[in-house]
Amino acid sequence: MAKTDSVGKHSFSSPRIACVDSGSERARTSRDELAGLYELVAPEESDVIVALGGDGFVLHVVHQYLHLRRPIFGMNCGTVGFLLNVYRSDTLIERIRAAQEVTLHPLRMTAKTMDGKVEESLAFNEVSILRRTRQQANVRISVDGIVRIALLAADGVMVATPTGSTAYNLSARGPVIPLESNLLALTPVSPFRPRHWRGALLSHTSVIEFENLDPHKRPLSASADFKEFFDIVSVKVLEDRSKLVKLLFDPDHSLEERVRAEQFAS
Question: Does domain 4-104+244-262 have CATH number 3.30.365.10?
């Protein structure tokens, strides 16, 4: 997901709660439990949306309800739960009232395809450009109009937000970025040339452009979170400050601290 814009308290007097679940047995059972304890409403009528599932599901909820601008309080009914709070059915209203608020802005990806189409999508975790065949990708990388890598030969490359820096970016040996840093990670995937280039940290105001140097022989895909496009000729990535989502976290389970702790994980 994108960088943190602000962290603070969000106060609700008597919040109208919507609840959505991932469809897993654990998530459905938890939603039934909450429905028996609280008067749930539709997301459009709510003050806050409670999301029950795993990290991937919360990412889907963020995209699905972005237009509503409702804060999202996630509770873990999945596995890792990095973007979620611990599931408890009691004191939900009190937890929402006391929650810390994190405001995130997404990346906007504009991709041009070989047939001339222009595709746009948002990403709160990362935008990734990846090879589609056994042959490596050949990509030119520019930042703010200046060519920084004339030829990257690799399996791919990505731009990750601070939240997304703990996901695919981390598995590609990219840096974990503190939420308050105002930085983005530019990270190669299995680079062959430049042989020793491990990536770069960029300002969140940067405009990053990728050009496929051999689109006919070495086709590429471009993904913004879970939305993917094929036969890519070029991709532009920048932060979209006009869009935002607010995630709510228990004070003793803050996202900021979890991201910071990932830098020291063994």
Answer: no
